[in-house]
Give the backbone structure.
Amino acid sequence: MGTAQPSPRARKRAHRSPAPSPSAEASPPREAVPSLDEVVFAELRARLGQRGSVLATDPNITSQLARQVKIVLDAVLRDLSGARDDLPPTSGAVTVGRRRAAQGVHPSQSLLAADILFDVALPHLVVRFDTIGSAAAVARSLHAAIMASVTPAAVGYVDVLLELVSSSQREERRRLARDMHDQVAHGIGVGVQGIELAMLDADALPAAVRERLASTLLVLQDTVETVRALAAHLRDAAHGRGLAEAVEGYVQLTVPSAVTAELKTFGDLSRLPGYVVEEAYLVVREAFRNALLHAAELTRIDIELTVSADLLTAVVRDDGAGVEVLREKIGTMGLASMRERAAVLNGTLEVRSCADGVEVALSVPLPVPR
């Protein structure tokens, strides 16, 4: 007996796919949960916006702020989790400070952001770590992380301002040098020419008058040379050279053959900021010049430039006159000028007796490299 074959309609139903169950249907995509730093940054930006801060409105500055928030919170999370490492929140903070200065953002805005960040982040961190430590421990860790970011940023900001001051001073010195050369020296030169013309008819003048004209001419000629030397002195600067290179160049140009001068360097001088190089060079140059001009029985000058982790020291040591003689000869103006330059760098200047003569020592604190 033959087997019955299914009808075409039955075969079609047999091959039809079963209807999907409700559980098999695609579920709608879940919204991404914002991270802790995203939540904190959003609240921080909103509150800064309420205060009219540029940190909340300028896209470039805002992106910097977002990165700083993440760095601070990551540091707190590592600290409170006991996972301490060698990646401090100060990483990149000096650069941020320099950028803020270049962007014209006043430091008060950064301090405002730091204050608000503490208020905004603390409740979130306390909730997250309520089983690990007390709220006081969380607050201490957050405060330390914020200050570790704010302090080097302030250093970077000040560095930029000091560079601007140094650049302005260089331009002013150049302007004064031009005025002295083009106006003062030129005016004296005209007087010299007038006397030289008068000397052509000196035979008709009394002998006493001729002698007075001749002596006056010599004085004016010496004065012209002095003015030109002063103009060159004002124009002199490091001009982008390293500190050792600038000092070595000045020594070679000015040291007399009867005096031995030696320059020694220690440490990495290439990491000195430009404004430190300019001001330190002018202090060393002045100390070297004073030794040449005023040290009695001078035969040797030693210069030592040393850069350690956090300090620049520049020492100029001669074997000539003692401290009191030096102070008497160069007066208070020369020492005051060097001390003012040291103060600009937040440094100190000492003038003291050494074994054979006088030692001038400049000390300048440096940012610790990260």
